Amino acid sequence: MEGGDGMFRFLVFRLLFHSLVLLGAVPEIEYSYFENDKSDLVDINVFLGRVDFSNVLRERYFFVGIRNVSNPTAVQSLSKDAIDKLKEINPVGIILFRENFKDAQQTKKLISELKKYLGSDIFIAVDEEGGLVSRTGENEKLGVYKFPAMESVGKTGDAQLAYKIGEILGKQLRRLGINLNMAPVADAKFSPDSPLGSRTFGYSSYNIGLMIEAFIDGIQRQGVFAAVKHFPGLGGTKVDTHKDLALLPYSKNFLMINNFVPFIFGKEAKFIMLAHVLVPKISGDVTSMSRDIVNIIRHNLNICSVIITDAYDMG
């Protein structure tokens, strides 16, 4: 019995140690700078406001990316042509990518221009998952800390760590003017060779759910909305959905137990993102265009988040 107790204490210590190492990796100088210098830090209440989603979303349906990978400087400010096209589309939000960012000053100016021409209530979004998908974190001039992949966070089992990561990201993204993070990834991996790689918190739906819930709470308390993704879950897929249309050959009951649990934990996220996959045992349509999938979200899982889809230029 004592041997078992000793092993338990060792495991607890090991998990706590990993949590402290990851949390301690946040550069104190940068973080204290964000905490102490509030000269241009937007007040949460002013920044977030009282968003009336029914009004913001009325007759606006698209998130638009402004992209030019071969010539990034062309999309780091708004040309008259770009402004005219954006006004014509009248998007509900703009999603920014690495080529849109030069430094913090340029980013703030770009976002200010977007709000000037498209409305102050527009959503400015980014993919900031940590690890390989860190659109702002990978640019040191933006002042957003690049966190490790969420798989390493999930291994700690420490939901408070996930909360802290969300909180810090929220503060730093808000400082730039970004008010929506297309994260966290709520997919549960079924096998080590999953196309998701290290983007997900791991394998256990329940453990992932705890992490998801904490991350969302942390980031949204700072005035940055979260978009939990990729419903109905990519964990059981065999191909990368960026390259091809994936298949989930499972029943609704199976997915309820193995895929949907993290999304239930993440129901406080203001957005939920649909993947582009086929689930023939649930619907004959691709999930991003399936009424059956929407009914599961609304009626089976009682999730009221705004439903959006993954990018339409994917597989």
UniProtKB/TrEMBL annotation:
Entry-linked SUPFAM superfamilies: (Trans)glycosidases
Enzyme Commission number(s): 3.2.1.52
Keywords: Glycosidase, Hydrolase
Gene3D superfamilies recorded: Glycoside hydrolase, family 3, N-terminal domain (3.20.20.300)
GO BP: any one term: peptidoglycan turnover
A molecular-function term among this protein's GO annotations: beta-N-acetylhexosaminidase activity
Top EC class for this record: hydrolase
Residue stretches making up the Glycoside hydrolase family 3 N-terminal domain: 80-314
Keyword flag Hydrolase: yes
InterPro entries hit by this protein: GH, Glyco_hydro_3_N, Glyco_hydro_3_N_sf, NagZ_Beta-hexosaminidase
Pfam families the UniProt entry points to: Glyco_hydro_3
Family recorded in the similarity comment: Belongs to the glycosyl hydrolase 3 family.
Record PANTHER family: BETA-HEXOSAMINIDASE-RELATED (PTHR30480), GLYCOSIDE HYDROLASE FAMILY 3 DOMAIN PROTEIN (PTHR30480:SF16)
Protein name (record): Beta-N-acetylhexosaminidase
Lineage: Bacteria, Pseudomonadati, Spirochaetota, Spirochaetia, Spirochaetales
